[in-house]
Amino acid sequence: MLTSKQRAYLKGISNKLEPVFQIGKGGVSAMQISQIDDYLRVHEIMKIRVLDNSLYNAKEASSEIAQAINADVVQVIGSIGILYKKNEKEPVIKLP
């Protein structure tokens, strides 16, 4: 669970990021969840975009992915979700 200070810090980092994954009409697949987990293991933070033709909204997709890979949802704005998962072995981001 992230504190409000940590969440604010991660929001600042994510401002310059572009969405890496898109969730479309097929929804969230096991393959996408695996790829997102691999990406977060290296980068620790990412943005996902939920397309208009998806059956999910950004909040639902972000929550489902976060639960599946034990990550935190930092923020959801419009069709963009920001996910964070700490790398215990080699942390990239030092949280306050």
Describe this structure in words.
The chain is an alpha+beta fold and 96 residues long. The protein has one domain: Translation Initiation Factor IF3. It contains 3 helices and 4 strands; from the N terminus they run αβαβαββ. A 4-stranded mixed β-sheet has the order 1-2-4-3, with helices on both faces. 21% of the residues are buried. The mean pLDDT is 94.
Order of helices and strands: HEHEHEE
Mean model confidence by pLDDT: 94
The CATH architecture can be given as 2-Layer Sandwich
Task: Work out the helicity level.
Answer: 25-40%
The number of distinct structural domains comes to: 1
Count of distinct strands: 4
Q: What Rg, in angstroms, do the CA atoms define?
A: 13 Å
According to CATH, the fold-level topology is Translation Initiation Factor IF3
Name the structural class: alpha+beta
Q: What is the global morphology?
A: globular
Question: Can you describe this structure in just a few lines?
Answer:
With 96 residues, this protein is α+β, with helices and mostly antiparallel strands.
Summarize the topology.
Blueprint: H1 4-14, E1 21-23, H2 30-43, E2 45-50, H3 58-69, E3 72-77, E4 80-84
Parallel strand pairs: 1-2
Antiparallel strand pairs: 2-4, 3-4
